[in-house]
């Protein structure tokens, strides 16, 4: 199983590291446009192999897509991250060109590759890959909900003073500061609804903290986060590589599910060897439906800025 990670920056390197540590891929190629950068990250990571106990071979490439040939899965993290005070949507001008070029180059050398899009604004970048490559929709997956759900569980555990392993919960909708839809009514602690433990006000606070999870970290770090994003991508790559049929909220092209069409937005899907193997269309409450609709309007507005 060969995995390519485009972008050897914070998220790309973290993602490659977690994939290697989990030791399910035979080969990870990291590619970056900056001369020597991916080679350096790959060498540094390989020098952790004997310490961390993995056999995955990690190599680096400066913009040579020949080295990515016959990849099963490719992760696109290339592009600029936001700075404090910015929205993800403000990155569209630079990142759209990068994501378009990178996805086209990847497909020249790996025509059957499954692409996971990370670069922001992620839902719109996922839509762009659909519109410009024309590959089947099961092979284009946007990463946002897996990360947002991990942050939701972190905030729920914090509010309940509970171990995170007790918590289950999911965030759907657009991967933006205002567009995320944390499904508070579905979240549980050991099968018991979290509303049994937390007041409505506290739950609303958890939902708000979850939605601005990326912005909160960007303010603290001066750039956006990488550990949890890298871990989220690595779990999705593993689900595909190991044909786990595992459920994650991912950005996917909808065709009527959730009442939406011609948009990529986060909904629960099953990930297995073919990429997105099924979209799970769960019933939402009226309030959740309204939030999903508003979220979709925001994503569509950003999609409208693309020059297709
Ligand atoms: N979807 C999500 O949940 C998340 C998305 N992100 C996004 O991921 C992207 C990357 O973030 P970071 O890794 O923190 O940024 P970074 O600046 O650390 O790394 C980006 C890398 O992309 C490279 N790059 C730029 N143009 C390229 C091209 N044409 N070909 C190959 N490589 C190229 C740069 O040289 C740099 O090394 C950002 O757009 C950020 O907003 C970050 C975290 C979570
Ligand atoms: O906040 C950002 O810009 C990066 C990102 O998408 C996240 O960490 O959720």
UniProtKB/TrEMBL annotation:
<feature type="active site" description="Proton acceptor">
    <location>
        <position position="175"/>
    </location>
</feature>
<feature type="domain" description="Lactate/malate dehydrogenase N-terminal">
    <location>
        <begin position="1"/>
        <end position="142"/>
    </location>
</feature>
<feature type="binding site">
    <location>
        <position position="32"/>
    </location>
    <ligand>
        <name>NAD(+)</name>
    </ligand>
</feature>
<feature type="binding site">
    <location>
        <position position="88"/>
    </location>
    <ligand>
        <name>substrate</name>
    </ligand>
</feature>
<feature type="binding site">
    <location>
        <position position="151"/>
    </location>
    <ligand>
        <name>substrate</name>
    </ligand>
</feature>
<keyword id="KW-0560">Oxidoreductase</keyword>
<feature type="binding site">
    <location>
        <position position="95"/>
    </location>
    <ligand>
        <name>NAD(+)</name>
    </ligand>
</feature>
<dbReference type="InterPro" id="IPR001236">
    <property type="entry name" value="Lactate/malate_DH_N"/>
</dbReference>
<feature type="binding site">
    <location>
        <position position="82"/>
    </location>
    <ligand>
        <name>substrate</name>
    </ligand>
</feature>
<feature type="binding site">
    <location>
        <begin position="118"/>
        <end position="120"/>
    </location>
    <ligand>
        <name>NAD(+)</name>
    </ligand>
</feature>
<comment type="function">
    <text>Catalyzes the reversible oxidation of malate to oxaloacetate.</text>
</comment>
<feature type="binding site">
    <location>
        <position position="120"/>
    </location>
    <ligand>
        <name>substrate</name>
    </ligand>
</feature>
<feature type="domain" description="Lactate/malate dehydrogenase C-terminal">
    <location>
        <begin position="147"/>
        <end position="297"/>
    </location>
</feature>
<comment type="similarity">
    <text>Belongs to the LDH/MDH superfamily. MDH type 3 family.</text>
</comment>
<dbReference type="InterPro" id="IPR036291">
    <property type="entry name" value="NAD(P)-bd_dom_sf"/>
</dbReference>
<keyword id="KW-0520">NAD</keyword>
<protein>
    <recommendedName>
        <fullName>Malate dehydrogenase</fullName>
        <ecNumber>1.1.1.37</ecNumber>
    </recommendedName>
</protein>
<feature type="binding site">
    <location>
        <begin position="7"/>
        <end position="12"/>
    </location>
    <ligand>
        <name>NAD(+)</name>
    </ligand>
</feature>
<dbReference type="GO" id="GO:0004459">
    <property type="term" value="F:L-lactate dehydrogenase (NAD+) activity"/>
</dbReference>
<dbReference type="GO" id="GO:0006089">
    <property type="term" value="P:lactate metabolic process"/>
</dbReference>
<dbReference type="InterPro" id="IPR011275">
    <property type="entry name" value="Malate_DH_type3"/>
</dbReference>
<dbReference type="InterPro" id="IPR015955">
    <property type="entry name" value="Lactate_DH/Glyco_Ohase_4_C"/>
</dbReference>
<dbReference type="Pfam" id="PF02866">
    <property type="entry name" value="Ldh_1_C"/>
</dbReference>
<dbReference type="InterPro" id="IPR001557">
    <property type="entry name" value="L-lactate/malate_DH"/>
</dbReference>
<dbReference type="GO" id="GO:0006099">
    <property type="term" value="P:tricarboxylic acid cycle"/>
</dbReference>
<keyword id="KW-0816">Tricarboxylic acid cycle</keyword>
<dbReference type="Pfam" id="PF00056">
    <property type="entry name" value="Ldh_1_N"/>
</dbReference>
<dbReference type="InterPro" id="IPR022383">
    <property type="entry name" value="Lactate/malate_DH_C"/>
</dbReference>
<dbReference type="GO" id="GO:0030060">
    <property type="term" value="F:L-malate dehydrogenase (NAD+) activity"/>
</dbReference>
């Amino acid at each position: 199983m060969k995995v390519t990670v485009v972008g050897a920056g914070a998220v790309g390197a973290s993602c490659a590291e977690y994939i290697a540590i989990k030791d399910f891929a035979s080969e990870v190629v990291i590619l970056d446009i900056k001369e020597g950068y991916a080679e350096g990250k790959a060498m540094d990571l390989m020098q952790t192999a004997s310490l961390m106990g993995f056999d995955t071979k990690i190599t680096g490439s400066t913009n040579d897509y020949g080295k990515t040939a016959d990849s099963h899965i490719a992760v696109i993290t290339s592009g600029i991250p936001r700075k404090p005070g910015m929205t993800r949507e403000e990155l569209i001008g630079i990142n759209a060109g990068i994501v378009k070029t990178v996805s086209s180059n990847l497909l020249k050398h790996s025509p059957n590759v499954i692409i996971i899009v990370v670069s922001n604004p992620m839902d719109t970048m996922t839509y762009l890959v659909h519109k410009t490559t024309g590959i089947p929709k099961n092979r284009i997956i946007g990463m946002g909900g897996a990360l947002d759900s991990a942050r939701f569980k972190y905030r729920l555990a914090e509010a309940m003073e509970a171990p995170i392993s007790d918590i289950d919960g999911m965030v759907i909708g657009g991967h933006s500061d205002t567009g995320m839809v944390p499904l508070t009514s579905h979240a549980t602690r050991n099968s018991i609804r979290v509303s049994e433990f937390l007041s409505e006000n506290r739950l609303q606070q958890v939902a708000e903290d979850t939605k601005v999870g990326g912005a909160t970290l960007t303010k603290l770090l001066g750039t956006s986060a990488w550990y949890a994003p890298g871990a989220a991508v690595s779990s999705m790559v593993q689900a595909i590589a190991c044909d786990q049929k595992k459920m994650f909220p991912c950005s996917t092209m909808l065709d009527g599910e959730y009442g939406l069409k011609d948009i990529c937005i986060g909904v629960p899907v099953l990930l297995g060897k073919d990429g997105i193997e099924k979209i799970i269309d769960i019933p939402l409450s009226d309030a959740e439906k309204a939030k999903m609709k508003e979220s979709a309007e925001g994503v569509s507005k950003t999609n409208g800025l693309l020059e297709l």
